[in-house]
Every structure is written in structure tokens, then in C-alpha cells.
Specification:
The protein is α+β, with helices and mostly antiparallel strands and 145 residues long. Helix content is 41%, strand content 19%.
Length: 145
């Protein structure tokens, strides 16, 4: 079963139906949306990214408060709503995202790869994993990379 974590978000009216969001338990974790629905989605994304960043930095993640303290300067009409994330899903998505990297190879090698229809990104990935002796879990299940 996936571990989930829920923090209370404070959804503060920002005019024209928009909402800004902050999490009292997580200073610096803020978000925004042009509508309440968009603010809720953005708050969930922001929360997941914030917790991931804390984990990557080795920062302790505070336990969620059942009734967090709302900043007294919060605009009237605010809502306190639970926002839930699944940290392992966020971590998996971020750790496995594709990133661009530049490499330098001789022009004739690139031309040869193009002539042969080779995927240079895939070849580089396979070479690095092979050199490191790493076999991704997905590869053993599917039989490919």
C-alpha cells in the first residue's frame, strides 16, 4: 500500500476567483490558482515538490498538524483544506524524468548513427547503466530498456 501524507493548506482569496495557498506546517511552500480547482491541483503539485526537495536536501519533514495555525494576516474568507500526496509516486516521477544533456562526439560518428537510425540517447543510457552494472527494475520485467 502506498504511503500518503496530508497537510492542511490555507486557501486565501486573491480576487477574481483566484486563490493563493500556503501550508502553515511548511514555511515557504506556497502556490496559486486562478480558480479554487486549479489552486487545489497546484497545491498538491507544490506540496509534492516541496517534500521531495526537503527529502533530497536531507531536511527533516515535520509531521502534519491536525489544526495548523493560520497566519493572522490571512485574508478573510480563507478555507483550510487537506492536501494529500503520495511521496513515493512523486519521487518515482521526478527521479525517472528525462533530462537533456549535451555530449560531444565527432561529426562522422553522429552521421553514422543517423545513417543507421540509432537512438544516441538510448545508446548512451544503456552504456552508462552497463558500465555501472545497473539493471533497471523495469528492464528485468519488460526485457528492454
Amino acid at each position: 500500500m502506498l504511503r500518503q501524507i496530508t497537510y492542511q493548506g490555507v486557501f486565501e482569496p486573491a480576487g477574481n476567483g483566484a486563490f493563493s495557498v500556503y501550508f502553515p506546517d511548511l514555511p515557504g511552500c506556497t502556490s496559486y490558482g486562478d480558480t479554487l480547482s486549479e489552486a487545489q491541483k497546484n497545491a498538491q503539485d507544490t506540496l509534492g515538490l516541496h517534500l521531495y526537495g526537503m527529502e533530497q536536501d536531507g531536511d527533516p519533514v515535520p509531521a502534519p498538524s491536525a489544526a495548523p495555525e493560520v497566519d493572522p494576516e490571512t485574508t478573510a474568507g480563507y478555507l483550510v483544506c487537506p492536501v494529500t500526496v503520495f511521496p513515493s509516486l512523486v519521487r518515482d516521477e521526478l527521479d525517472n524524468r528525462r533530462v537533456k544533456t549535451n555530449v560531444t562526439i565527432p561529426a562522422w560518428v553522429r552521421e553514422l548513427a543517423q545513417e543507421l537510425g540509432l537512438n544516441c540517447s538510448k545508446l548512451l543510457e544503456e552504456a552508462i547503466l552497463d558500465t555501472a552494472g545497473v539493471r533497471p527494475a523495469s528492464q528485468s520485467a519488460r526485457g528492454d530498456l
